[in-house]
């Protein structure tokens, strides 16, 4: 993990805001939040529907929740989430959000207006009509095709990525690009098809960015950490590990 000053105070080593969760998907934002903490971030706040928030509070005392009225993210939440974003060093959009029309419209507005570094994952990717500035996109193949209307190839990823619009394509061998360079991440295994590993990848990425790591480097390192933790679990469990098993191994991956 990243070095820090010995006299630093709470919050100086990264604040992450996660916007996610819905009645159907409670675990996704919690996994992302715990991964960000394990990656070294000081504080994680999850902005999510109130019933989801109370469930997350019961899952972990380490996660702060901001309780949004209703069952899904909607335009009425815009002022509150924008206020929360002011205190964050990185924002994760997507884990468990769902795909209601209200949610999609709100995601588009947030992504356009929030200028801070963002990790855009899962259902938030399905809401985008254009790629916002200052972000890491973490699509799998189908999400990439939905957003860009083309099949992902090394050449296409490099053409579509930019210095402030990093693409981390999740495949058996991940491809990460800033539009100039394409990096490969060969770590990971087929056991990582289990639900939740992508949420953890998004959380690790955000945790590293919140501590000051450049977007491209954070995406590359996060993919490597996530995959290597998965490989360690495969040695112990074969293909029977679950996403939450990854969390405890994140600090041990160099």
**CATH fold group:** UDP-N-acetylmuramoyl-L-alanine:D-glutamate ligase
**Which percent band covers the strand fraction?**
15-25%
Name the CATH homologous superfamily. Ribokinase
Total DSSP E strands: 9
Structural class: alpha/beta
Q: Low-confidence segments, ≥5 residues, pLDDT <50?
A: none
CATH architecture: 3-Layer(aba) Sandwich
Average predicted confidence as pLDDT: 96
- The DSSP helix count reads 9
- The radius of gyration computed from the alpha-carbon positions, rounded to a whole number of angstroms, is 17 Å
Overall geometry:
globular
Structural description of this entry:
This protein is of the alpha/beta class and 254 residues long. The protein has one domain (15-244): UDP-N-acetylmuramoyl-L-alanine:D-glutamate ligase, CATH 3.40.1190. It has nine helices and nine strands. The chain has helices at residues 27-38, 50-59, 78-86, 101-113, 123-127, 141-148, 154-160, 197-210, 215-237, and strands at residues 15-19, 43-49, 64-68, 90-93, 118-120, 135-137, 165-169, 174-177, 182-185. The protein has a nine-stranded mixed β-sheet with strand order 3-2-1-4-5-6-7-8-9, sandwiched between helices. Strand 2 (43-49), helix 2 (50-59) and strand 3 (64-68) form a beta-alpha-beta unit. Helix 1 (27-38) crosses helix 8 and helix 8 packs across helix 9 (215-237). It starts with 14 loop residues before the first strand and ends in a 17-residue tail after the last helix. The model has no long low-confidence stretch (mean pLDDT 96).
